Amino acid sequence: MNWTSVLIFFLLALGFSAITNGLFLKFSSNLGRRHPAKADQIRWAKDEKPSFGGITFFIVFLLSIISFLILDPEGAVLFQNTEFLGFMLAASIGFLTGLFDDAFNTRPYLKLGSQILAAVVLVLSGTYIGITGIYWLDIAITLVWVIGIMNSINLLDNMDAISSVVTIGILGSFLVVIQLNGTQDGSYGFIIIGLIAALGGFLFYNWNPSKLFMGDTGSMFLGIIIAFLGIKYAWNVEIVDRSVDIPLINRFLLVFIVFVLPITDTATVFFKRITSGRSPLQGGKDHTTHHLFYLGLSERYVALIYVMISLISIFIVVKMLQLYFAWNSFMTLGFGSFFIIVFGALFFIAHLNRSDDHYKSPEKDKKSA
């Protein structure tokens, strides 16, 4: 990639995202607003705010593809690539799924059906996790992975800026993989840079105290994007020197490092709800972010902790790739300890409070903190 062109594109995309979200905020009335929780719903934020962020992400996604085609005369071959076409279609399904849910509050089984459809599109276009060598089992793992990641990003959209900073960290890790591994995936790299810029512009309005939410439109779209990239650059990652085979343990390690926060939050919430006799699909104020807040940290500090963890994750991915040809079991233990520490700390904090904190009011909690 021509890095001058990439920098110019990033700055333009960042500016476009900030300006577009600002215009959405200025002209929004009822359209795209996430209303306060009803009697049968549990939400962290009590006030009504627009949920336009995801629309900007999708626009920048399309602009990234168009810009790449303009800058690379040979880029048109993308539309002869089944994998890329499947990726675009699955991303569009994710976007439309979230858009309909934000607009019409669709039933959970309809959302699940759309997530399965997006996963099937990826599989049919040749994108699936290949770790067992047993086709049907790899397909089953892929379906669980795609549905799980789409829902985990949706679950992380529970406090100002959290989903945004976590997704930026994951995208940054994949950009590192593309660059340090020397893969010729300029199209995906361009899309990643565009989405990081889109999320950066959105953060101007999503940082606490937020004025905009990304909504399911954003979380479903980003979820399918990083689920696909996770398959391509983590589960199925290849070293440019094809004579080198990546051990399965290293692939698992890369997945756990890159997705440490979504995996930790989803596993913690599901475990806590199931052991409390509640449905894991029920909304609540029992996420890892909320429990950090219950300790007395402000929402901004919680977001900054997630930023720090994401940056450390990117740094570890860099070192894993740089040291790959000198790999040994001590490195596996050392890098793996990062996941264990993060998971263990957040899981432990979430279980310090054994009460029905999923009904707590953030305002009330803040006064008692």
Characterization of the model:
- The chain is mostly helical and 369 residues long.
- It has one domain (3-368).
- It is built from 14 helices and 2 strands.
- The protein has a two-stranded antiparallel sheet.
- Helix 4 crosses helix 5 (135-156), helix 5 (135-156) crosses helix 10 and helix 6 packs parallel to helix 8 (215-235).
- The longest helix has 25 residues, at 3-27.
- 43% of the residues are buried.
- The model is unreliable at 35-40 and 355-369 (pLDDT under 50).
Cα distance spanning the termini: 50 Å
Number of distinct beta strands? 2
Number of domains: 1
Report the average pLDDT across residues: 85
Task: Give me some keywords for this one.
two-stranded antiparallel ribbon, 369 residues, mainly alpha, single chain, disordered C terminus, 2 strands
